[in-house]
Design a protein that fits this description.
The complex is a heterodimer of chains A (212) and B (387).
Chain A lengths: L1 E5 L3 H13 L3 E6 L2 H10 L4 E5 L9 H12 L5 E5 L4 H8 L6 E5 L6 H12 L3 E3 L1 H10 L9 H11 L4 H8 L3 H14 L7 H13 L2
Parallel strand pairs in A: 1-2, 1-3, 3-4, 4-5, 5-6
Helix pairs in contact in A: 2-3, 7-9, 7-10, 8-9
Chain B lengths: L11 H31 L5 H27 L15 H10 L1 H29 L4 H23 L3 H58 L1 H29 L2 H17 L5 E6 L6 H22 L4 E8 L2 E8 L11 H11 L4 E5 L6 E8 L15
Helix pairs in contact in B: 1-2, 1-4, 1-5, 2-5, 4-5, 6-7, 6-10, 8-9, 9-10
Classes of the chains: A alpha/beta (212), B alpha+beta (387).
């Protein structure tokens, strides 16, 4: 995978690069501010980007804005956004910037290297990876959500939103992969999602669930 | 009559009209003063109380008329600034009136200024009536009437010193409250850090130390400890995040009040509509105070209101930021009961802000927060943080 990395803290940037390179990624550009990020995203043939939300010059949400901007220019460009904190508001904005190929995770998740790199891979492959903390706040408030779904199906959908594969969901819920496939098919049917490529349907199911 | 700033000064004829009104009201003033004095003496035996309940409002009415005429003549407001009696029972009202310095000013006015003023007003009217003195009237009436109304103003409105005293008293109170509030906040933050992130980092250090010891002897166990240590860093970061949210929510820094309120609304269990009518950003301290006020109101809706819908409206007009938080729940909210709402009021008071609660028994509840402030044009604000 050829990636652009944007993170203003030198320690964290070096850590990210080391970690991604150790897992078979090529870092085509590493920048520390939003201005050079824009050029870096335009100038090379990166397959995706890993962005920090808060960066110079204003130290607010330029990473988020850059993600939305690049996806407006190159629809479906895979972006993984990392932040010290997560907001449902920002998750919605990212998800609304185009279908799939988007990730939004707390920086803490990087500590679990295997899962993080897997998440980046899923995003580059067109999947959606949303932080469990965002999922939890949505779970806490949802009563009538997609209330046609059974409790088990909702659990499966929440794990899908975190970007997990059927196999990962199966092991998280201690059921067989076949049972998960049955649940996902039932979710797609209940949400009236037409038969299409599996990844795309997963993304759309997640979007329906997040009501974006 | 307009008590504000009239666009053009009244003509001599209008002024003479005021003078005539002064004269007409003179007997009224005398009768009222007699009643107030008699009633005041008789309050020792209950019979004075109904007399006072009629005579004092009459005195207020008369003095208000004189204030309005003075304001028109002088070209600036002559406010009464009586102590508020809204909603107080009759006896309580009487007590407030008796202790209000303005009542005593008005009485003194009736006894001292009114006789002198009567002569001045009479002079104005006579100058008009006697045709020969027409010229004196034309030039003299404004001067005489200014003198008369200035005399009225001296006793009918608070002096500078009194106004300043009142302001100083309210500022001293709100400053003390603000200092208390910040001290309590700092204690809370210290406790949160001590019990949360700090404790977890200590545990982390111990776990890693243990793992270091075990590396050579029992790599399996050391590996388990390192995994545990990683989970502890996650928990410590989680603690720090919640502390930071309590100090200054990052989304408030990023998106300003409207964006942050939207983020709050999204996290609510009931649907909350946000209507943003702000064209710029209020100063950061005001933003933060209003944000936490709205957060408290929304938290109360979630906890107590049993509402199906909520809404937040942000608007700014004539130097005042007004925020309305409403819900269609069961109502009956009492702002003095919860410590949370009292904290909100204290925090707003530091900016001369006010909070009004309207919450009848079956709802809806409407909370209006008003803070005087200026809006800055929308721009990005540099800060010294890193994510």
């Amino acid at each position: 995978m050829r990636l652009v990395v944007a993170e203003d803290n030198a320690l964290l940037r070096d850590g990210l690069i080391r970690l991604l390179e150790a897992n078979g990624c090529t870092i085509v550009a590493a920048v520390d501010n939003a201005t050079t990020l824009a050029t870096a995203l335009r100038d090379n043939d990166a397959e995706g980007a890993v962005l920090d939300v808060r960066m110079p010059p204003t130290f607010t949400d330029e990473g988020l804005k850059a993600a939305v901007a690049v996806r407006a220019e190159r629809p479906g460009f895979p972006v993984m956004v990392l932040s010290q904190y997560v907001e449902q508001l920002y998750a919605r904005e990212l998800l609304a910037s185009g279908q799939g190929a988007i990730g939004y995770l707390l920086k803490d998740r990087v500590a679990n290297v295997g899962e993080f790199v897997d998440g980046v891979r899923r995003v580059v492959a067109g999947g959606t990876v949303i932080d469990p903390e965002v999922i939890a706040t949505i779970m806490a408030k949802r009563e009538e959500p997609v209330d046609r779904l059974t409790a088990r199906e909702q659990e499966v959908l929440a794990l899908m939103a975190e970007g997990r594969s059927n196999q990962a969901i199966a092991s998280a819920l201690f059921v067989s992969e076949k049972a998960v496939a049955k649940h996902t098919n039932s979710i797609f049917a209940k949400l009236d999602l037409p038969v299409a490529e599996d990844d795309n349907r997963r993304v759309r199911a997640v979007l329906a669930w997040l009501r974006v | 009559m307009d008590t504000g700033h009239p666009e053009k000064p009244p003509s001599p004829l209008q002024l003479t009209g005021f003078a005539a009104l002064h004269l007409l009201m003179f007997p009224l003033v005398l009768v009222t003063v007699v009643f107030v004095v008699v009633g005041g003496v008789l309050t020792v035996v209950t019979v004075g109380i109904p007399i006072m309940l009629a005579a004092l409002p009459a005195l207020h009415w008369i003095t208000d008329q004189h204030r309005q005429m003075a304001a028109r003549t002088l070209g600036y407001a002559v406010p009464a600034n009586r102590l508020p009696t809204d909603g107080a029972p009759l006896m309580k009202r009487l007590q407030i009136w008796a202790t209000d310095p303005m009542t005593w000013r008005e009485l003194t006015w009736a006894l001292v200024i009114v006789p002198i003023g009567f002569v001045l007003s009479l002079l104005t009217v006579l100058l008009l009536l006697i045709v020969v003195t027409g010229a004196f009237w034309w030039y003299g009436a404004p001067h005489i009437m200014r003198l008369r109304t200035s005399l009225d103003r001296v006793l009918l409105s608070q002096g500078h010193t009194e106004k300043l005293e009142r302001r100083v008293a309210s500022l001293t109170e709100s400053r003390a409250a603000t200092v208390d509030h910040s001290a309590a906040e700092l204690r809370r933050i210290e406790r949160d850090l001590h019990d949360g992130a700090q404790a977890r980092l200590v545990a982390l250090g111990m776990t890693l130390g243990l793992a270091e010891d075990l590396f050579a002897r029992d790599p399996e166990a050391a590996h388990k400890l390192v995994t545990e240590a990683r989970d502890t860093t996650g928990a410590a970061l989680g603690d720090l995040r919640s502390v930071v949210r309590g100090i200054h929510p990052p989304v408030l820094a990023d998106r300003g009040l409207s964006g942050a309120v939207e983020a709050l609304a999204l996290d609510m269990a009931v649907p909350v509509r946000v209507q943003n009518g702000l064209s710029g950003r209020p100063p950061a301290p005001v933003e933060s105070a209003v944000y936490f006020a709205v957060a408290e109101c929304l938290a109360n809706i979630g906890k107590h209101a049993g509402a199906a819908n909520g809404w937040v409206e942000l608007a700014w007009a004539e130097g005042t930021l007004s925020t309305t938080v409403g819900d269609d729940g069961r109502g009956g909210a009492d702002p003095n009961r919860g410590t949370g709402m009292r904290g909100v009021m204290r925090r707003l008071a530091a900016f001369d802000g006010t909070m009004r609660v309207s919450s009848p028994a079956d709802g809806p509840t409407l909370i209006t927060l008003e803070v005087p402030c200026v809006l800055s044009s929308p721009k990005t604000m540099p800060s010294s943080g890193t994510a």
